[in-house]
Amino acid sequence: MLSAYKIFIKGMVCDRCILAVREALHELQIPVTGITLGQITTVSALSEPDMDAIREKLTPLGFTLLEDKKTRLVRDVKSLVDKVYGGSYDFPDNFKFSDIVSRTLNKDYTVISNIFSEAEGITLEKYIKEYRVEKVKELLVYSDETLSDIAFKLGYSSGAHLSRQFKDQTGLNTSHFKEIRKSKQALTHHPGHQS
């Protein structure tokens, strides 16, 4: 079972406070598994934009967000994964994500990795693989970049290495997603065409 994420809220003193917080989160469409005095429980770590939106919504109501250290660490790691594997990172020679995450968060990689795995129910390595595969799919379908270009952008050693990992992860070849792109292009070039 996945761990729950707790976000602590300063200033909640009564049942009306719980109702106000529940309504605010409902308006923001942020799923929560529980709200008690001083605490929101969510299924997964919230993104920085979600946290900012909650902060903006709750501050005028007199509440202050207090995140626990593990939740913040997981969010920081995910943010770093996004920065590094988002498609515009300049990968140095002998690149190791573990070095960057340790240096950026000023913690031992094993500690970071263990906290991440415990909180997410998935290893950090697996999370990164899944993240990169989703990025590959996105680039294959929505850009006209070659497999080599995509491999370079996402830190794979080669197009062949990308293809192998992609096939291992998804059970599909990258060409399947290129076909989806061609289908989308055909539809946009022949909008009146009906089959």
TrEMBL record:
InterPro entries associated with the record: HMA_dom_sf (IPR036163), Homeodomain-like_sf (IPR009057), HTH_AraC (IPR018060)
Pfam families for the chain: HTH_18
Domain HTH araC/xylS-type: 101-180
A GO molecular-function annotation: DNA-binding transcription factor activity
SUPFAM superfamilies, sorted: HMA, heavy metal-associated domain (SSF55008), Homeodomain-like (SSF46689)
Coiled coil location: none
Assigned keywords, A-Z: DNA-binding, Transcription, Transcription regulation
Gene3D superfamilies the UniProt entry points to: Homeodomain-like
Protein name: Helix-turn-helix domain-containing protein
Organism the protein comes from: Chitinophaga ginsengisegetis
